[in-house]
Amino acid sequence: MNNWFKILVLGLVLASCEDRFTEVDTDFGYDYFPLEIGVFKTYDVMEITYNASGPDTTRYELKTTITEMVEEDDINYFVLKREQRPDELSEWEIADLWTIRRDDFTGVTVEENIPLIKMTFPAELDKTWDGNAFNSRNAAEYRYVSPTSAIYDDLLNGAQKIQVQIADIPQNLVNRDQRYEVYARGIGLVEKNYIVLNYCTANCGSEEVDSGIIIEQILTAYGQE
Question: d(Cα 95, Cα 85) in Å, to the nearest integer?
Answer without folding.
Answer: 9
